[in-house]
Design brief:
Layout lengths: L7 H23 L37
Length: 67
């Protein structure tokens, strides 16, 4: 379609679509950025802080049976 063949309503729809696209791009570029650091502690990590509790000892039980 050539521009001269478009109706006034079609042009209004195109303008509204382009404005919405520009607003979305502005929000992506200039919008609020949220980067959060969530520390995850695992047993493999070294800790410079002394632990306040002792590590749990595994439970042991003695099982006996007769044949």
């Amino acid at each position: 379609m050539a521009t001269s063949e478009l109706t006034y309503d079609e042009l209004l729809l195109e303008v509204a679509r382009l404005k919405a696209e520009v607003n979305n791009l502005r929000r992506l570029i200039f919008g609020q950025k949220r980067e959060r650091f969530v520390p995850i502690e695992t047993d493999e990590q070294l800790s410079f802080i002394q632990p306040t509790t002792r590590p749990k000892q595994p439970k042991t039980e003695q099982i006996t049976y007769t044949r």
